[in-house]
Write a structure and sequence with these properties.
heterodimer; A: about 110 residues; mainly beta; six-stranded mixed sheet; five-stranded antiparallel sheet; globular; B: about 110 residues; seven-stranded mixed sheet; four-stranded antiparallel sheet
């Protein structure tokens, strides 16, 4: 059964720092991987979607990479800002099913 | 405005009561999902539907029921059989192999 792990569970950085969030999955047979942001008490906001045939996707200061063979994805945030403080979740859609399978998230705190 | 709307935002349930959470989307997506989020547990799948009049159980379906009579709507009923219903409930929709979109969630509390 597919399992998704996110490390670290929490991260605190000063403003302006570049940082990397990690996501790993146990079964490499996936259709795609999606990164989300969640603010406290709110729903999930989609950040980036990477299809299984792609290696990376970029949106503004965010860059997500996918190494399907090793079961890993990273979310790179450049020049972090206090407004980036949130929980970041990764989820995979694997070939065994249609639903997204989530990691438990990384809670990011960026201090000014 | 395209998107997913969940209502209500907050819901209180008495012991032994059934309650229904609403989820509506105008994105013309075929697939819809219900997840439950508890602190430290991540999101767990309750039910999903890939097409009208069809739905499947997820990992934690016991004590919940759904219907999919219209493409736009996927209501979730939390029955009295669900012994620990206090949680944050999230609805999502997805079209084909594209990205999934989520609603703003419903926080259910047992009183």
């Amino acid at each position: 059964k597919q399992e998704v792990t996110q490390i670290p569970a929490a991260l605190s950085v000063p403003e302006g720092e570049n940082l990397v969030l990690n996501c790993s999955f146990t079964d490499s047979a996936i259709y795609n991987l999606q990164w989300f942001r969640q603010d406290p008490g709110k729903g999930l906001t989609s950040l980036l979607l990477i299809q299984s045939s792609q290696r990376e996707q970029t949106s503004g200061r965010l860059n997500a990479s996918l190494d399907k063979s090793s079961g890993r994805s990273t979310l790179y945030i450049a020049a972090s800002q206090p407004g980036d403080s949130a929980t970041y979740l990764c989820a995979v859609r694997d070939q065994a099913g249609t639903a997204l399978i989530f990691g438990k998230g990384t809670t990011l705190s960026v201090s000014s | 405005d395209g998107g997913i709307t969940q209502s209500p935002k907050y819901l209180f349930r008495k012991e032994g009561q059934n309650v229904t959470l609403s989820c509506e989307q105008n994105l013309n997506h075929d697939a819809m999902y219900w997840y439950r989020q508890d602190p430290g547990q991540g999101l767990r799948l309750i039910y999903y539907s890939q097409i009208v009049n069809d739905f499947q159980k997820g990992d934690i379906a016991e004590g919940y029921s759904v219907s999919r009579e219209k493409k736009e709507s996927f209501p979730l009923t939390v029955t009295s059989a669900q012994k620990n219903p206090t949680a944050f409930y999230l609805c999502a929709s997805k079209g084909g192999n594209t990205e999934a979109f989520f609603g703003q969630g419903t926080r259910l509390t047992v009183v």
